[in-house]
Each structure stands twice: as structure tokens, then as C-alpha cells.
Amino acid sequence: xxxxxxxxxxxxxxxxxxxxxxxxxxKHYQGWIFGKEHQRYWTQTIYKRKEKLYNPIWQNYxxxxxxxxxxxxxxxxxxxxxxVFTQDSTLxxxxxxxxxxxxxxxxxVGAISERKLPRIGRTELAEINHALEGLIIxxxxxxxxxxxxxxxxxxxxxxxxVFKEKEQIKQNLCPKCGGKLSQKKGKYGSFYGCSNYPKCxxxxxxS
Length: 207
Hints:
Layout: E1 13-17, E2 20-27, E3 31-34, E4 41-46, E5 49-54, H1 56-71, E6 79-85, E7 89-91, E8 101-104, H2 108-113, H3 122-133, H4 140-170, E9 181-186, E10 189-194, E11 203-205
């Protein structure tokens, strides 16, 4: 799906119905999953090993916004964000989420079916389905080309992000909040820390 940056974004699943449109992001992770709604990164723990994953609520928020833009509709309060983890993971969240449902695959049908009040008329729903069907690529060669460009756009975006971050670090500015950076010493050596800690928990490697 095209996004506002002139590139594309890849949405896992979109379910349309008279009761709402459900934008679904699927995650195939193992281990324990920890995270909060407004944290940039969540944590995956497998025994003693910990890995970061980008907050899927934030990720799917971008998908929802791209969908709104593509459909060119101002009032779309019937869009629902759902994050679905496989059963290989154990969700260890302490707080409830307000902007999205975070569940596992066996709960998905129930999460969609709990919406009982019709929100979209037949004509509007048909228009939405027709617009989304227009995005489906049937030609395999064209599909590979689109996917190749999508991956290239992601890599370019990542390079630009890394470059900007390095430039901000050179100026002793925090890439996350704009606060002052200073070198600190920790258990595993020196690192950059933000002066706005604990509100901002940005850390960066010292090259």
C-alpha cells in the first residue's frame, strides 16, 4: 500500500465488515514478550537472552494511517488495530492497551466477532472493498518487482535514519528527544546517554 512518504508499506491482513475494518499485524516470535503501549521497543526474552523488537502497536499505527490516506476518507472511526502473536510466545504485559488489541491467534476470531454494531453501510463497504482489491497484484513478475522496491525503500530509509542519528550524535544531541548527550560508563563499557533520563532512555554506542 502506498504511504505518505511516496514509498510503500506492507500490511499483513485487512478484514473488512459492516462492523468495522480490522488492520492486523502478525508476529511470529518465541519466548516471553514484554512491553508497554508507549515504549519504542519491546523485549523478547528466551531463557537469558534478550532481544529488542520495534513496538508493533506503533508499527501498525503507521499501517492504519496509510490505509486512511489511501481510501481518502476523513472520518474512519471504525478502523481497529490488532496485533496477533503466535502461540509460540508468552505475552507478559502488565498494563492494558488502549489503541490496539494485543492477543494471540486463538483469540483473533473472538476479537473481531465482539464488534456487534454495524458501522459501515453497504455502499461504502463495497467502495472500500473495490479500492483494496485494486491493490492485489496477480502477475508474479510484477509482484516480485514491487516487493524488491519495497525492500529497497526500507533499506534506504534505514540508511537515512542512521546517517541523521550519527549527525545528531556528532552535535551531542539526542536523536530521540533532542536533549544533550554525554558519554557515560556502564557494565559493558562507554555509551552515550541522554540528559533527559529517565524521561528519555536513549542510549547509543561510542564508536
